[in-house]
User: Fold Flavin-containing monooxygenase from Stylosanthes scabra.
Amino acid sequence: MVNESNYKSKNVCVIGAGPSGLVAARELRKEGHKVVVLEQNHEIGGQWLYQPNVEEEDPLGRNPFLKVHSSIYESLRLMSPREIMGFSDFPFMVKKGRDTRRFPSHTELLDYLKDFCEWFGLREMIRFNTRVEYVGMLDYDVCSNNDLKWVVRSIKKKSEKVVQEVFDAVVVASGHYSHPRLPTLKGMDTWNRKQMHSHIYRSPEPFRNEIVVIVGNSFSGQDISLELVKVAKEVHMSSRSLNITEGLSKVISKHENFHLHPQIDTLHEDGKVTFVDGSSISADTILYCTGYSYAFPFLDTKGMVVVDDDRVGPLYEHTFPPSLAPSLTFIGIPRKIIGFPFFESQAIWIAQVLSGRKVLPSWEDMMKSIKEFYHSREVAGIPKHCTHEIGDYEYCDKYGERVGYPPLEEWRKELCISSILNYFANLETYKDCWDDNEKIQEALQSPHFTQFGLQDSSL
Ligand SMILES: Cc1cc2nc3c(=O)[nH]c(=O)nc-3n(C[C@H](O)[C@H](O)[C@H](O)COP(=O)(O)OP(=O)(O)OC[C@H]3O[C@@H](n4cnc5c(N)ncnc54)[C@H](O)[C@@H]3O)c2cc1C
Assistant:
């Protein structure tokens, strides 16, 4: 709690109880704000709350409000090593009787988040089974940015009771790995065999003996192919670039039923799929592993924040919309970062700006910074849809510096890099074999891991 005379305690609504929303709630409360977290599901965890039943979801996830949030499949194991994942003051420890693997299953991360929630007493702030349907400005025409308030309309699942409330501030922590990003393909609308997005993929069994085309060769495309190739008759991976990693190349050469193709040219009504090199196959299923788009179907900002080709903007430092901040903020937007510590530093900054302990630059300076950032990305040849792909430790360190958040530990950065390199080279085995043991030991002896003592852990 701060004591300064200009300190303000705000009534804040956080949307979502995934990792971003949980750490936001903790930091906002720590800063003395009154916090309510609205979560559409019955439990915390966000993406890590596995949802096996997807029957009610549109296979291509084309509805603005999705029925299913999580895109996690049954066999999924983390792709980041556990040591790098923890929030700064809550290491992701190995616990006896749980999944002790370095790249554990998704349920282990959910258990970590539940532990985090219990440890910091966060549950009391969360209203479960409460879906936010509308967020908009109250008396927008007559209010200045400083006293802008927000109307939040939510609906209780089952009873369908609608509640409308007014908050001083809204923190959007609704995630961005649910709404499919789909390609536009000739014949896609008339192709009458099975087509679906990886958002609703759960297990390989329904594809037994099928001929499956996987569109996209990024993380999900590769991971899902690894298990499909064992049950499907044939797996055909189609992607923009045939320049593949050593790891994927090894897998393809090991399996006679795994084939690589360039982009799809046309989907034909009789099930034929033609690729841009003129080759074709007849397929049973097209599985789009083409990534996810940002979507905020509940949010009405009168056009002051828009999603344009996966650029959410304008957002100062991926967090603050200059015309609406600090009463409206976003957490968890960046991609290609070590997520949890970054979300934590975002949460601290948001909490401190709302209390008045920190002040944002002027509207002009925030806009100038955003324009400069966009320009630097354009000059570097980075497409618009990659605006929030950061992939830069220095950026994360500088971001946190503003609120006294410690820079990422060297071991965290190095373990992240060595895992990615291992993934590129050894796709099939990287989650079980590695050669960065020395760095792991360094991590386990660092203050991050020893802050609670080692008694809880069988490290
Ligand atoms: C297949 C897959 C694998 C991944 N693997 C890794 C990994 O190995 N390591 C890693 O660091 N990250 C991984 N991620 C990324 C993962 O999304 C993040 O780790 C993390 O979950 C992001 O947290 P978040 O809180 O921002 O969003 P989410 O986890 O998506 O949580 C958002 C929450 O908001 C709620 N919500 C949304 N809309 C509403 C609404 N209208 N009303 C009320 N509540 C709402 C949702 O129900 C959800 O609980 C993976 C993602 C996917 C899809």
Residues 447 and 453 are 9 Å apart (CA to CA). The domain at 4-44+122-178+292-408 is CATH 3.50.50.60 (FAD/NAD(P)-binding domain). The longest strand covers residues 130-138. The two ends are 35 Å apart (CA to CA).
